[in-house]
Write a structure and sequence with these properties.
Largest sheet: 25 strands, parallel
Radius of gyration: 24 Å
């Protein structure tokens, strides 16, 4: 009798454990992303606009992933990213989004919080008839993070393109991102223009102005920055720019230009960084506040704490 009751008790415990496991599995399935596919053929949709517009109510427990297949896809209207919705391609060299919005000051993407763009290339050509001058615009209501993304912009004369711009109240992450912004002549070619914090790692940025930061803090890790760093009025007590294990390259001697008309210079800290300039002598214009630790130039000369070559 005792053995029977013991066997029954063990059976009940096993059933309870199985039920609990099944409930957890079901709950886990409910947290999985809903996947929508975009492909030239055989997908749910053939355009990204249709796919993102098809999503009604996404949420923390009802996330969506738009998976874009191989090939090139034209973006004819600006994409409004949605919260809890992410976009992923098959790789930077496999999936390309070609910008063709054609309107002044209309970005290709409007960012949103709790969203991510990954594994694809965004390519834009800007000219007198296609003057959309920003690839991704993050507003104060939320920013989209980028992972394994390439942004390539080629602009004709007189166009001032920006790859990524961000308003205040909007922080974002760039992980393994390649940004290249070129213009023929005239105008300003800007890779990142930010009014709030960002964290960049394992990335490569090339532009006339690589980073334009105003009154914000940012961190750059293990990246290559080719172009001028511009900083604007900041409160030095709570803002700074920090570079770790990175290479900073400039076509001329000037690496950092700072404007301090209202408040003070944005403090910049370089740790284990290397500067590449024509004469190996990095210059910092304006009322610059820079500090170097364990850093050097490309000729093997160590830099002191003021980022000057040690004689």
């Amino acid at each position: 009798m005792f053995k029977l009751e013991k066997r029954r008790l063990l059976s009940l415990l096993a059933l309870f454990a199985l039920s609990t496991h099944s409930y957890a599995a079901i709950a886990g399935m409910q947290n999985q992303e809903n996947t929508i596919t975009v492909a030239r053929s055989g997908g749910d949709f053939t355009s990204l606009e249709e796919a993102i517009n098809s999503i009604g109510k996404a949420g923390e427990r009802n996330r969506y992933l738009i998976l874009i297949g191989p090939g090139s896809f034209k973006i004819l209207e600006p994409i409004e990213m949605k919260r809890w919705v992410s976009i992923s391609g098959r790789g930077k060299n496999v999936t390309r989004l070609q910008g063709a919005t054609g309107d002044d000051n209309r970005p290709l993407f409007h960012g949103s919080r709790d969203s991510n763009i990954s594994n694809l290339e965004i390519k834009m050509g800007m000219n007198s008839t296609n003057r959309s001058n920003t690839a991704i615009r993050n507003f104060s209501n939320g920013c989209s993070d980028l992972q394994n993304v390439a942004i390539t912009i080629k602009a004709s004369s007189g166009i001032s393109p920006t790859a990524l711009s961000s308003d205040s109240g909007c922080s974002f992450v760039l992980d393994n991102v390649d940004i290249s912004v070129n213009r023929s002549r005239g105008g300003r070619a800007v890779a990142i223009a930010s009014l709030d914090s960002f964290n960049m790692r394992n990335s490569r940025v090339t532009a006339n102005i690589a980073i334009a930061a105003e009154d914000n803090s940012f961190t750059v890790n293990a990246s290559r920055i080719s172009g001028l760093i511009e900083t604007y009025d900041a409160d030095p007590s709570n803002t700074s720019g920090k570079f770790y294990d990175s290479i900073l390259q400039s076509a001329n001697e000037l690496v950092v230009a700072q404007s301090t008309q209202i408040e003070g210079p944005l403090p910049l800290f370089f740790t284990r960084c290397s500067f590449i300039t024509p004469n190996g002598l990095p210059e910092f214009a304006g009322n610059s506040d820079v500090s170097c630790t364990l850093s050097d130039n490309d000729r093997g000369s160590a830099l002191n704490s003021n980022c000057a070559v040690t004689r």
